[in-house]
Amino acid sequence: MRNKHIITVILVIVAMGVTIATNYFINNRQLEKKCAWIDISKVYQEFKMKKELEKDVQVVESARKHILDSLELGLKMIANQFEALSDKEKDVMAQQFQQKKQEYLTRQQEFGEDNEQLRSNYNQQVLKQINQYVKDFALQEDYYMVLGAEGSGALMYAKETSDITEEMIKFINNKYEGTK
Amino acid sequence: MRKIHLSQICCLIYLLLLSTACKKSAQTNDEKSSFLNTLFNTGQGTEILSPDDYIEWCEDETNELKKTKEIGDFKFAAFMTPIDYLALKELKKGEAADPEKITAGKKEYGDLTYFSFRIENIKQQDELLKIGLSADNDYYGRLEYYSFKMQQDFKVITGSDTVECGLYHFERVYGLAPYATFVVGFPVKNKNEGMKLWYHDKIFNNGIIILDFNKESLTHLPKLKI
Predict the structure, then answer these.
(1) Which residues of A touch B196 (CB under 8 A)?
(2) Along chain A (180 residues), what's the average pLDDT of each consecutive run of 10 residues?
C-alpha cells in the first residue's frame, strides 16, 4: 500500500515535469513568434495580384507599341518614296512627313508617360494590398513586429528561424483571393 | 493518510498546469467548433421560410451572403441578393407577399445573379466621390466613370469561367451618405460551383478586390414560402 502511494507521487511529479517543460517550450515558441521578418522582394514577386496586373500592363504596352510601329512604318514608307519624286511633289511630301513625324513623336511621348503612370499606379495598388494583408496577418497571428528585408541594409541580421516569408506569401494570396 | 493527501495535492497542481496549457489552444478549438457548426448546419439550406424570415435570413451575415474586405481606408462589401429577396424588397412596407406579384417581380429580374456592391471610406464621412480629389474636374471624371464605365471593371469567376458584368446600376446618393452602392448582375450559368466577385478599383488605387462566395453558402439557400 505504501509503495503504491510512492509510485503515484512519482508519477504525478513526472507528469508535472512534462507539463512544465511543454509549457516552457510553447511559451518560448510564442515569444519567438512575436517578432519575424519577410523578404519583401520575394513576397512582392509571388503576390498573385502583382502577376495579374503585370499581364495587364504588358497587354496595354504591347497595344501601344503596335500603334507606334504602324506610325513608324508610315514614316519609313514616305522616306523611301521621297527620292523618286519630283521637286514639287517633294515639297508636299515633306510637309506630310513633318506632320506624321510630329504625330509619331507626340504619341511616343504620351504613351511613354502613360505606361509609366500605369506601372506606378499598379505598383502602388500592389503595395497597398501587401501592407494591409501583412497587418491582417500580424493581428491574426499576434505578432508585435514584422520586419521587411529588402537587401538595402535596413535589416542587418535576422535568424532564419524567424523568416516567415513563405507563410506570408501563402496568407497574402489566400487573403487576396478571398479564401481566408 | 498524509501521503494520500500529498498525491491529491500533486494531482490538483498538475490539473492546474494542464488547464493553463490548454488555454493556449483555445483559439484553435474555436476554429474547429466553427467548422463543426458548418458541418452540422448543412441541412439548413432546405429550409422553407416566410417572406419576413427569408429577408432576415439573407441579411444575416452568418449565412455568408455578405462579404467584406478592407484595404487601407476603404471597405468593400458585396451582398449576393437572391431573386426572391429582390422581389420581396420590391413590395411596399407592410404589403402582403402576393404570389402573383412575387412571380412577376422574379420574372423581371430574369436569370442573372445579382450583387449589391458598396465602397466606403472608413476614415472620412465625406461623399465618396469627393475623397482625395486633386482638381474639380476629377469629380466629374469620377461621376462619369461610376455612371457608365465601371461596369467593365467587374467580373465573376466561377470555376475556370470568367463572366462579364451584364447589368450595372450606380445608385447616386448626392452626398447624403459616405458610401457608394452599385447593383451588378451577371449571367452565371453554374451557380453551384461557388463564385468570386472581382472588381478592379482604379479610382482609389486599391487594386483588385476579390470577394469569395463559397459553394456551401450558395447551394444551401432557403426556399421562399408564399
Answers:
(1) 177-178
(2) 79 82 69 82 96 97 96 90 82 88 95 96 96 96 92 83 95 92
Say which residue, B134 or B156, is predicted with more confidence: B156
B157 contacts B191 by C-beta, under 8 angstroms? no
Question: Using CB atoms within 10 A of its CB, is residue A3 exposed (0-12), middle (13-18) or buried (19+)?
Answer: exposed
Report d(CA B41, CA B22) in Å as an integer: 27
Residues of B in contact with A20 (CB under 8 A): 17
Q: Round to whole Å and give the CA distance between B66 and A89.
A: 70
Partners of A121 on chain B (C-beta within 8 Å) are 202, 205
Backbone φ and ψ for A154, nearest 5 degrees, come out as -65, -35
Residue from A31, A130, A133, A177 whose CB has the most chain B CBs within 10 Å, to mutate: A177
Strand partners, B9: none
> Is the confidence metric ipTM above 0.85 for this complex?
no
Is B156 touching A (CB cutoff 8 A)? no
> Which residues from chain B sit within 8 angstroms of residue A17, using beta carbons?
none
Q: Which residues of chain A have a Cβ shorter than 8 Å from any chain B Cβ?
A: 2, 5-6, 8-9, 12-13, 15-16, 19-20, 22-23, 26, 30, 49, 52-53, 121-122, 124-126, 128-129, 131-132, 176-179
Say if the Cβ atoms of A177 and B6 lie within 8 Å: no
Runs of H (alpha helix) within B125-191: 136-144
Residues 6+ away with beta carbon under 8 Å from B102: B84, B87, B88, B224, B226
pTM attached to this predicted model: 0.77
Rounded distance between C-alpha atoms, residue B46 and residue B42, angstroms: 9
Q: What are the pLDDT digits (tens) for B96-155?
A: 778 888 888 889 999 999 999 999 999 988 889 989 888 877 899 999 999 999 999 999
